[in-house]
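Annex B. Sample input.
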Amino acid sequence: MEYIAVLLPSICIGIIFWLILRSIFRGDRTERAMEARSQDDAERWYEQLRQRDGEDVPFGHRPRRGRGPKR
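Annex B, continued. Sample output.
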């Protein structure tokens, strides 16, 4: 019984730490998925604009393919 009383606070802190990290990682994964959907939507819109107006688009260049900044 003494061992449980000694280890219980550390176990509880470990579980709380794990829950916080899990929440952070899930939020990051969701944010990345939403950013990817937003980029895909913007690319589709831009392609529709190019098909409708031809090469005379108001932005003057094609969007870069791929996800995020190049490193």
